[in-house]
Design a protein that fits this description.
The structure is a single chain. The chain has a single domain, classed as Up-down Bundle (Outer membrane efflux proteins (OEP)). The chain is about 65% helix and about 15% strand. The chain is built from 9 helices and 6 strands. The strands form 2 sheets. A 4-stranded antiparallel sheet has the order 2-3-5-6, with no helix packed on it. It has a two-stranded parallel ribbon with strand order 1-4. It is elongated and about 155 Å long. The two termini are about 50 Å apart. The relative contact order is 0.16.
Length: about 425
């Protein structure tokens, strides 16, 4: 019996060492979180659609800079008599009083806003990929802990079964070990499913096919320092593309006001024309030589004129008022967005600091104590003064602590990614 106890204690030691030193090497070509982010930004169908909207805005900007087309007018008349006339006219709108500049200004602000919106989608997508990668890493760590313990407990079960057949160990110990192995096996199946599901979701975010190979390299640890609160707020107000989009919306509101004001001013069109008239009377006239001839001849007329639109009744007052109200609303939205960004930065920093303190407690006052407790129980069992049930119970407590440690690591990781997201600086170090 003491030999069996010593052997089981040694197996538990191996399990403890395996649980504390986790290395998840996966077959196949490994990729980092940063590489997945780069792939997502390049291959995401949603981003490709958003970038197509930029191309549409570029087309509208090109269109806004074009002048109105001239109008060619052709006409003719034919009388019941031989008389007839043909007219040709050309009208050129002048597009005066800043009409073109107003259209171009609105189109430029729209293009600026679309580009900022695409950058904001990229920021959000990068954060989503990093968050989902953290979920994969956390699930993979839990699976590795369970795999290591399951391997050790299966070896211990085989040893106990042999000892039971020899009559050196009661059958109860075999049943206890069997229950523990089956429990670990069931837990492993759930954790493996969690890894698979998170990996599928990560592939979708990265624009990969569901069956594409994915071997994620890295862990949850990150030693990247966070900026001070004032610096983080400054970075957010400077770098956040959603704020850039809000500012572009404000600028577009001002541009719309100028455009509508230009539409309410006077405008003019220049027209030129030519008329050929074949006209006469059903009479004969006398020529200079005294001969007679029908009174019939062809006359050519050239003319020009200016058409002026006089803004007397309609000075576009309604559209100007609507544009002014929209501009004021855009300014209010910008103020709210800046306030929300400051709150997001403060909340992210507070979350990170709390998670870091919790992680420090786990590293200094929880995991090391749990390791010593498990060592004491092992030694007690090896001296024949404890039972296998005590070792199993302490091992379960150790697993719970390891799972809690994984959760805290994930919280620190997520908080670091959140800081990058709210400040608009997606550093490549998060989840490296």
């Amino acid at each position: 019996m003491p030999g069996l106890r010593g052997t089981l204690a040694s197996l538990v030691v191996v399990a403890t060492l395996a649980a504390t030193g986790i290395a998840q090497a996966q077959p196949g070509a490994e990729v980092t979180v940063d590489e997945l982010v780069a792939r997502a930004l390049a291959d995401s169908p949603d981003l490709r659609a958003a970038r197509a909207e930029i191309e549409a805005s570029i087309g509208r900007l090109q269109q806004a800079g074009l002048r109105p087309n001239p109008m060619l007018e052709l006409g003719g008349q034919k009388a019941l008599s031989p008389d007839n006339n043909v007219t040709i006219g050309l009208t050129v709108p002048l597009d005066l009083n800043g009409r073109k500049e107003g259209r171009v200004g609105v189109a430029e602000r729209e293009l600026q806003m679309k580009r900022a919106q695409v950058r904001d989608r990229e920021r959000r997508l990068a954060a989503d990929v990093r968050m989902k990668a953290g979920e994969v890493l956390a699930a993979r760590r839990g699976l590795a802990v369970t795999d290591d313990l399951l391997t050790v407990n299966r070896a211990a079960l085989r040893l106990v079964q042999n000892r039971v057949r020899e009559g050196a160990t009661p059958e109860l110990d075999e049943n206890l070990m069997l229950v523990e192995v089956n429990r670990l096996d069931a837990t492993r199946q759930m954790l493996a499913s969690r890894v698979d599901i998170a990996s599928l979701q990560l592939r979708a975010l990265a624009g990969m096919a569901p069956d594409a190979p994915l071997a994620l390299r890295g862990d949850l640890a990150s030693a990247v320092p966070i900026p001070p609160a004032d610096e983080a707020a400054r970075q957010a107000l400077t770098n956040r593309p959603d704020l850039d989009a809000a500012r572009a919306d404000v600028a577009m509101g001002a541009a719309k006001i100028r455009k509508e004001q230009a539409e309410g001013r006077w405008d003019a069109s220049v027209n030129v024309g030519y008329q050929r008239q074949d006209f006469g009377f059903d009479l004969n006239g006398v020529t200079n030589t005294g001969a007679t001839r029908p009174i019939q001849d062809v006359f050519h007329y050239f003319g020009a004129g200016v058409s002026i639109v006089l803004p007397v009744r309609n000075r576009n007052q309604g559209n100007i008022a609507a544009a002014a109200a929209e501009a004021q609303a855009a300014e209010r939205r910008l103020q709210f967005a800046e306030l929300a960004v400051r709150q997001e930065v403060a909340a992210a920093l507070a979350q990170y600091e709390a998670a870091r303190r919790s992680l420090g407690i786990y590293e200094r006052g929880v995991r090391d104590v749990a390791t010593r407790n498990l060592s004491v129980v092992r030694q007690t069992y090896g001296l024949g003064r404890g039972s296998l049930l005590d070792v199993i119970a302490e091992q379960r407590r150790y697993i719970d602590i390891e799972n809690g440690y994984t959760d805290v690591l994930r919280q620190v990781y997520d908080a670091r990614v959140e800081i990058d997201r709210v400040t608009g600086v997606m550093t490549p170090a998060a989840g490296r």
